[in-house]
Prior knowledge:
Layout: E1 2-3, E2 6-7, H1 10-17, E3 29-34, E4 37-43, H2 44-51, E5 59-66, H3 73-85, E6 91-93, E7 97-100, E8 107-110, E9 119-120, H4 121-126, E10 133-136, E11 152-154, H5 159-168, E12 174-179, E13 182-184, E14 192-193, E15 196-197, E16 211-214, E17 217-220, H6 230-234, E18 240-242, H7 247-264, E19 270-275, H8 278-284, E20 293-298, H9 306-314, E21 319-324, H10 330-350, E22 357-361, H11 368-375, H12 392-406, E23 413-415, E24 422-426, H13 436-440, E25 446-448, E26 454-458, H14 467-471, E27 477-484, H15 487-491, E28 493-498, E29 501-503, E30 510-513, H16 514-523, H17 542-554, H18 557-562
Parallel strand pairs: 4-5, 4-10, 5-6, 10-11, 19-20, 19-21, 21-22
Antiparallel strand pairs: 1-2, 3-12, 7-8, 8-9, 13-18, 14-15, 16-17, 23-27, 24-27, 25-26, 26-28, 29-30
Amino acid sequence: xxxxxxxxxxxxxxxxxxxxxxxxxxxATVTFTTAGHVLLLGPEDRVRLAASQxxxxxxxxxxxxxxxxxxxxxxxxxxxxxxxxxxSLPCFNAEHLQLRGFLGQFQAAVIxxxxxxxxxxxxxxxxxxxxxxxxxxxxxxxxxxELKPAGYFHVGADDGKLVDALAQLPQLIGQFDKPRYVQxxxxxxxxxxxxVDGCQRCLSVCPADxxxxxxxxxxxxxxxxxxxxxxxxxxxxxxxxxxxxxxxIMKDYLQRLLSRxxxxxxxxxxxxxxxGELGAAQLSQLQQLPAGVIxxxxxxIGVAGAELxxxxxxxxxxxxxxxxxxxxxxTLRDLVSSEHxxxxxxxxxxxxxxxxxxxxxxxxxxxxxxxxAQSAQLEVLPVAAFSTDLPKRDTFYNALDxxxxxxxxSSDSIAISNVxxxxxxxxxxxxxxxxxxxxxxxARALQDGGDSPALKFTxxxxxxxxxxxxxxxxxxxxxxxxxxxxxxxxxxxQVLKEEQPFECITCGKPFATQAxxxxxxxxxxxxxxxxxxxxxxxKMCEDCRVKDMFSDILDNPEKQLRV
Length: 563
């Protein structure tokens, strides 16, 4: 039996067919509009030959950026014929090109000899603000990204890719909709707050360079975004949410899929995450997936992060496999590998067999039968019952606590650098309880003491964004990245520091902390405004301080004259 061209055993096929992945009926989209104005760049011979085969587009502009690639006589005769056919086309020579944009909005700037300012090539060539499409025949890509923007074709010297591109380019004229894959909730984003820089995790994991910090806010360009999902996986607060499908919908699907399989079989299944295009093509080349292996297609493998891996195991999968292949962007490979390594350390501490979570490259697919057969010997674990609509971090910890409880029940803390989990370490001698840290904490991991001067901390909420550390005027805060397997300790609110409030020496109202008053009186002891008995005003609340200042002026005629 086949599911999406992948040959499956009857039970896995039935479970997939009987479990529907709910879809957003009105998904957010962006629209590309193109008229078919094409920029071709690279060696003149290849550019001329390609341009001669693109007569059906709106316009062709040639940019010669490299020397002729082939000097064979017969080949050059073909080039001469193509040159005659394209001699009327606008043609430019430039070694330095600045190219950016996407389908329908490509901007190309070149620096011509003896010119200091870049020339807008589209305005010069076709009197338009931009090109719609780019065919890049250069030896290296003018847009050097792992996931190229829509409408940009880098074929280099690959004739097969050139044939495909020449077939596709004329079809890319008109309007085209693309999903808006992710959404950003700036209210819970830990990137920046009140002039302080914090989390940078999403900025380094996008293979399409679609994420920028614009005026200290994370912005995702939906026209460049390919839906890799790495940003949502890396985001520690859940500020970036994948939308195709949403995280709750994906978790609900996985839970129902696993539940349905367990109703159909006494065995526990293996969940195989793969991307829905090239990964699926790799799987379809197998004669049949091993019995009990359920493929779950994603836009890209980055969509399923560690919380979905653990949740799948907690909801009844005996094993989770994550498939990569030679076309998986290196950025995604690095992210998935890092997440896997971190989970492996947690599994070791909790006594969980490491084979429950494995990365599998397409070159290793021949071993999948042996992998599945070995995992069939693993202990059958109870199925967790936590909800599918929990926030990302709660899903992660609920699944981890369940798996840990099924094994050693470890209460260890495992120090792992650069993870978005851990502690705030406070130097209580330096801390004045000014509460700058609590005011900026996006996850509410740090909170004040309410009516009493205190700083409280909940480890499970801490995303290690660094805002508190950067904001602390006393440099009293440092971060300790770790996974804490002690659920009670991790979830409990700890008092990092507390003091008795300082009471106004005039009216007795609490208005500051002992540490703040001590620091102020020490720092301002030599200031002329607080000479003599005036230093006592620092020990008064705001109202009493103002009253004392006016009383002093009224009692002193010389001060009245100065006023």
